[in-house]
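Problem: given the chain below (209 residues), write out its structure.
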Amino acid sequence: MSAELVAVGLTPVALPCIEVIRGRDEDVARARAACEEADLIVLASSRSLDTLWPDGSFPDVEAAVIGPATATSVVERGGTVRAIGNGDLLALVRSLDVENAKVAIPHAPSTDPRALAELADRCCSLVSVPVYSTAPIGPSGERVEGAVFVSSSAVHGWALTRSFDDVRLACLGPSTAATLQLYGRDSDVADHHRSYRDLALGLAELVGV
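Solution.
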């Protein structure tokens, strides 16, 4: 997301709102073995990479990923990226030709269940394993003009230590936007903005860049 913000003239400020919690050892081992035997690995987040391959490696298997940052991480590890999605896992799944493929998708428990179900229907074999989870943490109080939330956990984390007032807000996906509404705020960037680039463009317009 940082690259997309810089590209539209914004200055990204890292304010972590979630803590990543590694999954059970047996689940991580199962997911790693499935990835090594698969025809395609689907990644909704780069967090799966550090969880499964902390040594910086990647199997000799093509990957379909969400976001250019995850794609870059795969390539830097020596992997090959077949497809890159723009924040919508279900749309990415629907774009893939996996009819005769063995697919592995290591993920978080909060991953869109519609995408997992459709992937299971479309491929010949699917191993779907939660390998990490996230928990909200409160960010620092550094002043910012806007904030981008890409998960519901991040919204909850922000609310632990900060107000949503006087900040322009952008949310990736309807579930994240719905979580923000629990705190009495709507996303300032229109709901149809679903890619990282669209979020960055919408936020830049709002803050006058």
